[in-house]
């Protein structure tokens, strides 16, 4: 390998390392504490199914539990696939409007 090729390889390695350091990781996401959902039978599974558009399994009790979760957290529905809790709160608000 001549000097010009070595410089290109080094430049590409530095660029690759720099890009990987800047990339946001999943570790930065704040996941929702699952304790509230664990208290309602089938709630977590119903929420996973709801990500596909089927909301018939969501119960009023499950939606009450969803509303107790902190704003801005993410629910890990599937490995590598997290949804903002606002997604589920909106579904629950449409299915079970809050009575005033």
Indicate the topology:
Elements: H1 3-22, H2 35-38, H3 43-50, H4 60-67, E1 74-78, E2 81-84, H5 85-95
Antiparallel strand pairs: 1-2
Helix pairs in contact: 4-5
Protein name: Prolamin-like domain-containing protein
Signal peptide: 1-27
Organism: Brassica oleracea (Wild cabbage)
The counted number of beta strands is 2
Count of helical stretches = 5
Describe the largest sheet: 2 strands, antiparallel
Q: Enumerate the spans where pLDDT stays under 50 for 5 or more consecutive residues.
A: 22-26
Beta-strand content estimate: 5-15%
**Average residue-wise pLDDT:** 84
Portion of residues within helices: 40-55%
Beginning-to-end CA distance, first to last residue: 75 Å
Q: Could you say which structural class the secondary elements and strand pairing correspond to?
A: mainly alpha
How many domain units? 1
**Rg from alpha-carbon coordinates:** 21 Å
Question: What assembly state would you assign to the polypeptide chains in this entry?
Answer: single chain
Query: Helices and strands, in N-to-C order?
Result: HHHHEEH
Strand order of the largest sheet: 1-2
Protein name: Prolamin-like domain-containing protein
Signal peptide: 1-27
Keywords: Signal
Organism: Brassica oleracea (Wild cabbage)
Question: Your description of this structure?
Answer:
Helix 4 (60-67) crosses helix 5 (85-95). A hairpin with a 2-residue loop joins strand 1 (74-78) and strand 2 (81-84). With 100 residues, the protein is mainly α. It has five helices and two strands. The model is unreliable at 22-26 (pLDDT under 50). It has one domain (26-95). The chain is rod-shaped. The chain has a two-stranded antiparallel ribbon with strand order 1-2. It starts with a helix and ends in a 5-residue tail after the last helix.
């Amino acid at each position: 390998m001549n000097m010009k090729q070595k410089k290109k390889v080094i430049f590409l390695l530095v660029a690759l390392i720099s890009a990987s350091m800047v990339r946001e990781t999943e570790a930065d996401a704040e996941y929702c504490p699952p304790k509230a959902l664990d208290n309602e039978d089938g709630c977590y599974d119903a929420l996973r199914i709801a990500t596909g558009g089927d909301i018939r399994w969501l119960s009023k009790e499950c939606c009450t539990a969803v509303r107790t979760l902190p704003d801005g957290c993410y629910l890990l529905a599937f490995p590598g696939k997290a949804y903002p809790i606002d997604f589920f709160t909106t579904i629950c608000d449409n299915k079970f409007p809050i009575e005033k």
